[in-house]
Amino acid sequence: MRKVRSYWWCLLLVLPCLVPADGRLSADDQRMIKRAEQVYGVRAAQRVSAWRLLAEEGRRSAWSERQRLQKVNTFFNQLQFVDDSRLWQKNDYWATPLEFLGAAGGDCEDFSIAKYFTLLELGIPDEKMRMVYVKALRYNQFHMVVAYYETPSSVPVILDNLIPDIRPATARNDLIPIYSFNGQHLWLMKARGQGEMAGNASRLGSWNELRNRMTTGKLALPKLRLE
């Protein structure tokens, strides 16, 4: 596993050098990379560049939805897990994907948020995804994952930073679902992988604050340097 992670980090450093001079990345992507460099440094800009290349490749390629899930899950699981109390010196901080890549790490919410928004960008419909708060029994703590439903009645598969592979919810006996949400709705979980709608996602203050920061482009600086 350590060798695999080392390979991916090397790839992250090399990919930005492969950007064609004629601009495979859009002007907006280039501005995002420049912004990351200004706020977080050169290595952060390299990570953001690799992320934007992944998104661009996904838009141009005929990847299946399962391939998109796998590539996005693998990409973000390279980053380091760090508690909000150490990284941001806050009890709970939901980082934007750009802040997550800029800081080079984050907690479970940050992994899930980055995966969710990247998959949306790659064309996975919002109604097929939920971010799910669970109880991680192995660690005896609350945790967040992304669930993908191939059909409304399907058992979802789980994208998680705790394990590298994507597994169906029925194979994750270590997780107890509590509630879930996506861009529009909030559900209370009644059974593994299913749930009863409980209202709009706008009831979640952290979710609203995150989306406001994504709209305004405001970036926070981590209190802990990971590199």
What's the structural blueprint in terms of helices and strands?
Blueprint: H1 2-14, H2 27-40, H3 42-60, H4 65-76, E1 80-81, H5 84-87, H6 97-103, E2 105-106, H7 108-121, E3 129-136, E4 141-148, E5 157-159, E6 167-168, E7 175-181, E8 185-191, E9 194-200, H8 205-216
Parallel strand pairs: 1-2
Antiparallel strand pairs: 3-4, 3-7, 4-5, 5-6, 7-8, 8-9
Helix pairs in contact: 1-3, 2-3, 2-6, 3-6, 4-7
Write a concise keyword list for the protein shown above.
single chain, 227 residues, two-stranded parallel ribbon, seven-stranded antiparallel beta sheet, disordered N terminus, alpha+beta, 42% helix, 20% strand, 8 helices
What does this entry look like structurally?
This protein is of the alpha+beta class and 227 residues long. Helix content is 42%, strand content 20%. The protein is built from eight helices and nine strands. The strands form two sheets. Strands 6-5-4-3-7-8-9 form a seven-stranded antiparallel beta sheet, with helices on one face.
Helix-strand sequence: HHHHEHHEHEEEEEEEH
Number of strands: 9
Low-pLDDT runs of 5+ residues are: 1-22
Which structural category do the helix and sheet elements fall into?
A: alpha+beta
Write a brief structural summary:
Helices cover 42% and strands 20% of the residues.
